[in-house]
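mind reviewing both lines:
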Amino acid sequence: MTKLTLLSEIAPHKSCTVLAILSDAPGMQRLQEMGILPGTKISVIRRAPMGDPIELEVRGYKLSIRKREAAEISVQPA
């Protein structure tokens, strides 16, 4: 069985591609509306000192999300 990789596990200065959104919570719908969709390339820019929030680059703009939100996004590391 293949281990699922989550966006919350991607290190700063690394990239990945979104495979799936694992939750249908209202906050996750907002992220999809902002462009985090399957097939989207995401770069992790940095994390706050305690790991939350995480700054991402998505479709040419920067976005900060909570670690718990990132844990609901399945990705393929680049």
The chain has two helices and five strands. Residues 26-33 form the longest helix (8 residues). The first strand starts at residue 15 and ends at 21.
